[in-house]
Hints:
Number of helices: 14
CATH architecture of the largest domain: 3-Layer(aba) Sandwich
Distance between the termini: 83 Å
Oligomer: single chain
Amino acid sequence: MTEMLQPHEPAASYLARPDEVRRVCLLYSGGLDTSVMLKWIQDQYDAEVVALTIDLGQPGEDYDVVRGKALQLGAVDARVVDAREEFCRDFVVPAIKANAVYGLGYPLFTALGRPLIAKIAVDVARETGCDTIAHGCTGKGNDQVRIDGTVATLAPELKVIAPVRDWKMGRDEEIAYAREHGIPVKGGTEAAPYSIDDNLWGRSSEGKWIEELGHAPEDDVFQLVTRPEEAPDEAEVVTIGFEEGVPVAFNGERLGIVELLERAAEAGIRHGVGIVDHIEDRIVGLKVRDIYEVPAASILLTAHAELERLVGTIHQNRFKRSLEEQWAYLVYAGLWWEPLREDLDAFMESVNRRVTGTIGVKLFKGSARVVTRESPHAVYDAQLATFSESGGLFSQQASPGFIELWTLQSRLAWRLHNAPGPGAE
């Protein structure tokens, strides 16, 4: 095992050579991978380690315990940063304005969190005199791109090491290393059934049967959202109030963005809303299956998209959908700092200036369905929507002329393409 763990010559300019590493800012969760990394970095690089833990709303974490464990394992400093407000304000809100979903199902909660985590790591590394940032990403996932790319963009003077990507240890070998070096492992040393990542915007599960496409979801994977079969038999309607595209009220109560996301998530969890069984094209070339639990995102994205359709014209709504797909792809692909994303944000901000109003969403056994809509900017007239003859701005008698002109080119082309050939009877 020791031979597999040896540092090697870096394959990219931003990766650290062993002789360059003196003090490392380690992104530390307190789990098996990062706890083994904390000890291994000290031994292999003879380097000091500053442990950094970032709170993006992961449920059930005791950050005092996490910090204490890092210090116990030899970290010269251990910091916990509460980044929930920044995450919601600067990453989740832009995603809501962009109706951001990747691959028809994934609301990008991990993809949105990683550039912020890496940005904070850069700030802490500079503050604490670190020359290197370390993370626990593997060589198969997207997170390595998001974190490495952020560090290389924002802090070219810093280097990166990713021991899990390099050392090729399996979980059993990590557990053996932890036992050998007296490293306590959260939850004991039994192999966890799933690899979990979560924050305020959602939760993902990978591993075990999830990798088998013919295997239906097992109940034990759902540790956040109530199984729809066990959700209440009575529906609940919740209302989301928006101002310029930003969710500001839940059930008529004005709330800060963090609390609003938490309240929306609680309602969704209760009613089994937000379960996504997803096949995903990763940017490293793999197709993977993930189980997502995204109660807050399912409710808020549904409500925002409906309100935006209500206040936009058909041309605005059709055009924006293509830009939303590009925005989501850039974020998924680890290109948060790409200038095009900022350009797209400018368009999203312009559209969302009119996205003010309230949407009612009915929650029932896994579904979230819009049932009420209200906005001072609605491009909607109840009189025009009726079938009465008193159309006001709309005259039904004008329709035949419109139809003739609207279909003129298509009708002419069809006749030309389907005309009988010369000599045909």
